[in-house]
Design brief:
- 34% of the residues lie in helices and 25% in strands.
- It is α+β, with helices and mostly antiparallel strands.
- It has a domain at 6-95 and 207-272: BirA Bifunctional Protein, domain 2, CATH 3.30.930.
- The two termini are 28 Å apart.
Length: 273
């Protein structure tokens, strides 16, 4: 199965910038198309292919990269983590995994509880660590999360229970910290390898989140993105309960070979095209 590389719509996620082309957008992920297939009756499925994100250039980033994405009908996020663990062990060798909440990771490495500290104090701590961006709470927490990730040891971590504001297309749930996103990231050798979650099924809630994304986009002088009505219609038809995950294959291969950047495993990284 292969979904289109170019789509008429794209994601509203404020953390991701799409690349516009003549007929729409280069896709940042096959997620929207794959969910439309699931809603039409396709069983659990996967895809490997190129995806594109504007402005992502660096040691572990490239505007075009290979993504493995799959969806498991009837799985929760815990069961999906077990599958991810099996795949990563197959490629990198058997390792020890630790599951830690977003709150505890930042608390252990930075020494602050982002769920129970004033935004002003959180911003002060971030500035002390070198942050120079806006006072936007989500951006400040993203900075602290990245600092915590870079401070932890080189083992493998499943980070779970992200703030509700970062749910994107994930379901939310009640935890000891309050409402959180039912999603996870796999960190290996301080590199994010996978992002997965228990999928949101409510089209009205997704439309609300898309509208909020666009409001924030406008506040940040970014272009608004029209909601993908075909995806919303498919969800109204009935997206089955499922969990999905995306893995950056270039990063996984680079770690398996002991390399230190994506450019070492890509035939034509952005600086050679």
């Amino acid at each position: 199965m292969h979904t289109p590389v170019v789509g008429s719509q794209t994601v509203t996620d404020i953390q991701i910038d799409s690349i516009p082309v003549q007929r729409g957008f280069l896709q940042t992920s096959p997620e929207f198309f794959m969910k439309r297939l699931l809603a039409s009756g396709v069983p659990s499925c996967y895809q490997i292919g190129p995806v594109f994100r504007d402005g992502e250039v660096g040691k572990w980033h490239n505007p075009e990269f290979m993504m493995l994405e799959w969806y498991r009908i009837g799985f929760d996020s815990r069961q999906l983590r077990e599958e991810v663990e099996g795949l990563v062990d197959l490629v990198l060798g058997t390792g020890t995994y630790r599951t830690v909440t977003y709150k505890d990771l930042i608390g252990e490495e930075i020494g602050i509880d982002v769920f129970d500290t004033s935004p002003r104090e959180i911003h002060r701590v971030a500035v002390h660590l070198g942050y120079s961006g806006s006072e936007d709470f989500t951006e400040v927490c993203d900075f602290l999360y990245s600092q915590a990730m870079n401070s932890c040891d080189c083992s493998r971590y499943f980070v779970v229970d992200f703030p509700e504001e970062s749910a994107a297309l994930a379901e939310t749930k009640i935890s000891e910290s309050g409402m959180v996103a039912d999603r996870f990231e796999l960190i290996a050798s301080r590199i994010e390898l996978a992002n997965g979650y228990n999928e949101l099924l409510d089209p009205d809630e997704l439309k609300r989140r898309m509208a909020l994304d666009n409001k924030i986009r406008c506040d940040k002088s970014k272009s608004a993105v029209d909601p993908d009505e075909r995806l919303l219609d498919a969800m109204r038809h009935g997206l089955p309960q499922c969990s999905g995950v995306a893995i950056g294959l270039d990063r996984l291969v680079a770690l398996a070979l002991g390399f230190e950047s994506l450019g070492q495993v890509m035939t034509f990284p952005v600086n050679r095209i």
